[in-house]
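quick q for whoever's on today - can somebody do inverse folding on this one?? i tried earlier but teh output was garbage lol. tokens:
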């Protein structure tokens, strides 16, 4: 594959382990998946040759993650529900609690992430509505293989993914990409570490739907 001239979403979908490389370099492979690697390398001033070397190394890595393009579609749907929907529902309440604690104790500091708990609550509410639509409408359509064409539902989900991507950008900025102050307490560090893990999980979640699940459903 010509990695530099390929859309990063396509690379992430076809090369197991590529999402980890993209997360390492801060490359948006979910909502920004239609951009070529070359475009994002130039925009973010990254070392394209190094990224390509990391991607090529994955081609020979026997421990790379599963190739979801070759796994049964219903297994993929179950994976998204079990390993992302349920995980997000576990992550957010604890992150909100940690954010409220940090804001309460360190609110007088200029570097306190004031407003982070409100951002996480908004993400929780919007993400819950989104996941319920998938669980109650889209996933049953895919599992049954009958009924209305799921295209309209998938299109709506993709639009919501765009908004989720913007929320993730705001969260990432609020936690300085997961880098707490040097003198941060353990709660503060746990908050940033957990929020960064949540952001990475949601990006992987969106990627699997936008770049793997939806194209496979559309292809029939």
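ok took a stab at it. sequence:
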């Amino acid at each position: 594959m010509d990695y530099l001239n390929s859309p990063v979403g396509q690379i992430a979908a076809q090369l197991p382990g590529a999402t980890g490389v993209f997360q390492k370099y801060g490359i948006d492979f979910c909502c920004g998946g239609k951009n070529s690697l070359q475009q994002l390398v130039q925009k973010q001033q990254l070392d394209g040759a190094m990224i390509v070397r990391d991607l090529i190394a994955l081609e020979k890595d026997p421990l790379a993650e599963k190739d979801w393009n070759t796994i049964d579609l219903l297994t993929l749907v179950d994976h998204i529900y079990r390993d992302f929907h349920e995980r997000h529902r576990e992550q957010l309440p604890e992150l909100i609690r940690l954010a409220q604690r940090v804001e309460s104790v360190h609110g007088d500091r200029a570097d306190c992430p004031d407003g982070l708990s409100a951002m996480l609550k908004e993400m929780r509410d919007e993400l819950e509505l989104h996941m319920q639509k998938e669980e109650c409408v889209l996933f049953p359509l895919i599992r049954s293989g009958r009924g209305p064409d799921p295209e309209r539902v998938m299109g709506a989900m993709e639009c919501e993914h765009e908004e989720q991507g913007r929320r993730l950008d705001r969260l990432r900025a609020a936690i300085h990409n997961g880098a707490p102050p040097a003198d941060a307490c353990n709660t503060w560090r746990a908050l940033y570490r957990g929020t960064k893990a949540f952001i990475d999980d949601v990006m992987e979640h969106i990627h699997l739907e936008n770049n793997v699940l939806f194209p496979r459903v559309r292809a029939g």
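fwiw Helices lie at 8-14, 18-25, 37-44, 48-58, 73-106, 116-144, 151-174, 186-219. also The radius of gyration is 18 Å. so keep that in mind when u check it
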